[in-house]
Amino acid sequence: MNIPSELKYTKEHEWIKVDGDVATVGITDYAQSELGDIVYVEIETVGDTLSHGEVFGTVEAVKTVSDLFMPLSGEVIEMNEDLESSPESVNDDAYGKGWMVKIKLSNPSELESLLSAEAYSAEIA
User: Fold this and answer.
1) Per-residue pLDDT tens digits for 73-92
2) What is the pTM (predicted TM-score) of this model?
3) Where does 8-108 sit in CATH, by number?
4) How many angstroms separate the CA atoms of 100 and 111, rounded?
């Protein structure tokens, strides 16, 4: 299972990469493998300011639909438009081409509540 050490994680299986006051968010390799073949990603919250824990979109796999939760409070400033035509990118490259949204952070102190790669690894063990 691929769990890059430079990223942060949530118990809901999102990964977060922070660059200044912008965070890139996706679902983990573990999450995509549990979901199976992803056929659709729906994100209609670009421009919205959401709180930690709110739903920012959904991911649809062959066998289920799953909500995507905000790992940090902030404004959704961008979505990965490539997922509209290539949702399988989430399966193929969860930490690269499969990213989902970028968030402008409104409360950077929430970063402290995120899991390290080691802590996330223990969660899914």
Assistant:
1) 999 999 999 999 999 999 99
2) 0.95
3) 2.40.50.100
4) 18
